[in-house]
Amino acid sequence: MSDLRNPLQRARGLGSAKSGVGHWWMQRMTAVALVVLSIWFVLTLLSMLHADFATAHAMLAKPWNAVLMIAFTTSMFWHAQLGLQVVIEDYVHTRWLEVSLMVLVKLLAVLFALACALAVLRVALAG
Amino acid sequence: MAQSGRPLSPHLGIYRWQVQMVTSILHRATGIALVAGALLVLWGLTALAAGPDAWSCFTGFTGSVFGLILLLGWTWALMFHLCNGVRHLLQDAGMGYEIPQFVRSSWLAVVVSLLLTVAIWAYLMAGGVL
Question: Minimal CA–CA distance to B91: which of B35, B28, B24?
Fold first, then answer.
């Protein structure tokens, strides 16, 4: 070791980590949103026992339900993608496979979130 | 993993069993299970948008024995991930860092998630779903 300064001394003055905590922070942000949204989701499902197609359709078409459902599915896939990234980083030790899997997971998460949003919009705007 | 010759950190086999270890492992396991649950939500929403035929195909699956077993599993997975997730958020805010508090909150997450699962399925059974 040629540098005898301690790590804190070296880091000082280099500026903030900027997006360094981005993953951690977004995982917590989506987690907080999902605490509220998943409770809403479960209660909504429980209120829809024995609902037929028309009832379920009309329920989701209500503006608040449609908005909250899109918020739920978007934060769910965002949170899922962040979590799967950590799992892949921990267990996949072949670099090309690790990167390929992460790219695949992230692209699929965006695709699925978009598909959910479009499905909700089709129901909400069908009337 | 590549053989680097570096010393390894102690692995799972070396630790005494503790509840914090179980909640940590379960948090990841339930998270992975819930990814599959997310795909079910995707199927349900696209089915509802596609029309009555697609919807009855979806409810046919969720109402089958296999579907109900999966839904029971996902209920607990969601309740545990939710309870333990709230526990993690509180710890991120700097709360509950004493070891006895760690143990207590771990047990609390396990027990409350099981109670919530039982409550939800008791409600479902009372509603005549099974």
Answer: B24
From the CA of B100, how many Å to the nearest CA of chain A? 24
- Residue A64: which domain range? 23-124
B42/A32 CB distance under 8 A: no
Residue A102 has what pLDDT?
A: 97
> Of B14, B82, B12, which Cα lies nearest the Cα of A40?
B82
Q: Which of A18-22, A53-57, B7-11, B53-57 has the lowest mean pLDDT?
A: B7-11
Q: What is the pLDDT of residue A1?
A: 53
All residues of chain A having their beta carbon less than 8 Å from the beta carbon of residue B53 are none
Per-residue model confidence (pLDDT) at position B8 = 74
- As a whole number of angstroms, the distance between CA A45 and CA B71 comes to 12
Q: How many CB atoms lie within 10 A of CB B111?
A: 11
- Please say if the pLDDT value at position A70 is more than 90: yes
ipTM comes to 0.89
Across the interface, which of A46, A119, A120 has its CB nearest the CB of B123?
A: A46
Average pLDDT over residues A48-54: 90
Which CATH number goes with the domain that contains A71?
Answer: 1.20.1300.10
- Say yes or no: A97 contacts chain B, CB-CB below 8 A: no
Specify the CATH number for the domain of residue B51.
1.20.1300.10
| Model confidence band, residue A38 (pLDDT cutoffs 50, 70, 90) | very high
- Tally of domains in chain A: 1
- What residues 74-113 of chain B have any CB closer than 8 A to a CB of chain A? 78, 82, 85-86, 88-89, 92
Report how many domains make up chain B.
1
Cα–Cα distances (Å) from A81 to B20, B70, B88, in that order, read 24, 22, 18
Residue A110 lies in a domain: yes
